[in-house]
């Protein structure tokens, strides 16, 4: 076991009387693609929102590479190398595709000049197969292409410590799904990013993830390799329905 | 024309695309130079009354650009731009009359006071979204108007407060050049903002604040700074206006003034660089031509805005661009940066 890059300690989030994330404790090593599974409403997206600072914790601690994240505002996560995508395809619609990639570097007013970063944007588009759309308005992209653009954005960060992907493959055409998987692998292997992948697609999870965790009713009920957790009774009852 | 504003940076382009872009930029610079020479020469061809009308048109150009920076490019639909112009006018008057400082100090003071109040109002209101922010700024503007009216011991209320003129001459020409220069500087400020990193932040905030946050944009901070810049420019415009007309009154903070700014920007081209310039001058021309109808002209303006928003959101500038595009390359008529106002709203 390597050293944990991300540690969750008793992470809890309530919405009124509903406990969306209930006392989750886990640690994640650098360079791992970790699948987060579970039925709808089990707290996966809430956990992503807590780690990325979009929600405030009610209790617990989140530590990334020695930095406590629980009191950091969401906009300050990017400077730590925390990159996230959203369930719904999101892009800055009135900007061109390449301009979309310059927003993360434009957000840092002390960083490099925009003109110096165009090559990196060109490279990011090439890695995701979007070069031909570079000067098109992002609003003209399909849903799948927009998800690819969200991934391309991750290549603009230096470093990329943690990539939080919230159901990126939902409703995406198979050809684009392949490109997305290749991009995720590159970010993981070449940039050493820890990837937390929320997905219901078991085939994709099997291809990408070396470890998985299963959530149910806000709790992390199982952890291990997919083969290990898939045969556990509580996982079958809560999520899978039958062994896979 | 607005392509300059919406594409500050680009990807590596093919030689033909670069050549086309270069030709486009040269054409824009050429058109701009010809227009500037024409505007500089204009007072030689107009009578004094017409020069005054155009001068006030530049005042609305400044307000229009400053509002478009905030509402058009950053998506913050403020309804207080006219109030900040009024604040600027009274602040300059206070500096000049109460502190006995020279006019330039008064004008500088107006910029600072309007900017500071804008920063404070932004801090209080920019956490609100959409219509709540608009209502809050409208309430602020009304409060400014009422405060100026009821504190007549200081402001002389609706009787009006006499302030020194910029120049000791009844000739409107010097005022024309001051406003032309100020409007040109405001336009250059707009261009500079869009070319800098802050321009990306502004457009990101407008398009999707949640995604902007995920990209690392401190949305509240940059909305506040843009609000401050926008209100400081409005303060400058108001101060210059005050020292041009020589008489201040709370009626300058009437909502019809704000409506006129919105009308001008929508008429010219919302979210375009040149829209407020064209719209400010054309709307001012219409307003003067329809002066005989008094306040009823605003009804006509309202109908025009509804018609433009409904039928042709890109406005006059968008129309000119579409004609130029069709004649040169057979490109389709532009929508408002790829979206229709009728479907996604104006920020």
Write structural notes for this entry.
The complex is a heterodimer of chains A (244) and B (347). With 244 residues, chain A is α/β, with parallel strands linked by helices. Chain A has helices at 44-51, 97-106, 118-127, 143-154, 174-189, 202-208, 226-230, 233-240; strands spanning 4-15, 18-29, 33-37, 59-64, 67-68, 82-84, 162-166, 194-198, 211-216, 219-224. Chain A has a domain at 4-90 and 158-240: Rossmann fold. Helix content of chain A is 31%, strand content 25%. Chain A has a 6-stranded mixed beta sheet, with helices on both faces. A 4-stranded antiparallel beta sheet of chain A has the order 2-1-4-5, with helices on one face. Chain A is globular and about 55 Å long. With 347 residues, chain B is an all-alpha fold. Chain B is globular. Residues 1-18 and 331-347 of chain B have low confidence and may be disordered.
Give a short overview.
The complex is a heterodimer of chains A (244) and B (347). With 244 residues, chain A is of the alpha/beta class. Helices cover 31% and strands 25% of the residues of chain A.
Number of helices of chain A: 8
Overall number of strands of chain B: 2
C-alpha-based Rg of chain A, rounded? 18 Å
**Beta-strand content estimate of chain B:** under 5%
Helical percentage of chain A: 25-40%
Which chain pair has the greatest contact?
Answer: A-B, 42 and 33 residues
Mean pLDDT value of chain A: 90
- Fraction of residues in H or I helices of chain B: over 70%
Q: Total strand count of chain A, please?
A: 10
Strand order of the largest sheet of chain A: 6-7-8-3-9-10
Distance between the termini of chain B: 22 Å
**Biggest sheet statistics of chain B:** 2 strands, antiparallel
Q: Give me the secondary-structure category of chain A.
A: alpha/beta
- The multimeric state of the shown protein is heterodimer
Q: Count structural domains of chain B.
A: 1
Give the terminus-to-terminus CA distance of chain A: 26 Å
The CATH homologous superfamily of the domain at 4-90 and 158-240 in chain A is called P-loop containing nucleotide triphosphate hydrolases
